[in-house]
Design a protein that fits this description.
Layout lengths: L1 E4 L5 H10 L3 E5 L9 H8 L7 E6 L4 H10 L4 E4 L15 E6 L3 H5 L8 E5 L16 H4 L7 E4 L8 H8 L3 E4 L4 E2 L2 E2 L1 H12 L4
Parallel strand pairs: 1-2, 1-8, 2-3, 3-4, 4-5, 5-6, 6-7, 7-8
Antiparallel strand pairs: 9-10
Helix pairs in contact: 1-7
């Protein structure tokens, strides 16, 4: 099971997450309490191993600006968390993860319209697009087959529920942000425990 730690803002936490087994690090460039500048993200990214995905999170940003940030922040993938159309998702220099808020069965049907291979399935939006610490009904996925799609599960995951979420939804990757924080800051003890729970018996 692959694990993405999202909302990273400093190199020390990023390096520790990778040492604990994180497969991907997420940088938020949209409005969020975890927002980071492209320059700062780039300084972190260049210190990470090549095998670790460096994923930039965007919400309704222009394609030109996204491409600029891909280069400045040294991103290897991007995650589009807004109202981006299938056409918009096609023309980037790195793979695109399209995020969807899942509240009901119909929300999953949107996926078929998109050319992407990677999809992040999150809980319905709160104040921000993502990072709200709320789960959605994972059973919606257990009865669904999404052929040729690679699923990243997000939304309210934490140390206590990630193993159950993986068992039900069977994603290729899990994504956590607020679930490994204490008082709004990344907690390396929680990051380590989350990664261990996610990867136990699921490799």
């Amino acid at each position: 099971m692959k694990v993405k730690i999202c909302g990273i803002t400093d190199v020390e936490t990023a390096l520790q997450a990778v040492a604990f087994g994180a497969d991907a690090i997420g940088f938020v460039f949209a409005e969020s309490k975890r927002k980071i500048s492209p320059a700062s993200a780039g300084l972190i990214a260049e210190q990470l191993p090549a095998y670790v995905e460096k994923i930039g999170v965007f919400v309704n940003e222009t394609s030109d600006r996204i491409q600029e940030i891909i280069e400045e922040a040294k991103l290897t993938m991007i995650q589009l968390h807004g109202d981006e159309t299938p056409e918009f998702c096609k023309d980037f220099s790195v793979p695109v993860i399209k995020a969807f808020s899942i509240g009901c069965q119909q929300d999953l049907e949107q996926i078929e319209d998109y050319p992407n291979q990677w999809f992040l399935l999150d809980s319905p939006s709160g104040k921000y697009r993502g990072g709200n610490g709320i789960t959605f009904n994972w059973e919606l996925l257990s009865s669904n087959t999404l052929p040729n799609k690679r699923i990243i599960l997000a939304g309210g995951l934490n140390i206590d529920n990630v193993a159950n979420a993986i068992e039900i939804a069977k994603p290729e990757m899990v994504d956590v942000s607020s679930g490994v924080e204490t008082d709004g800051k990344k907690d390396t003890h929680k990051i380590k425990a989350f990664i261990q729970k996610a990867k136990k018996n699921n490799d």
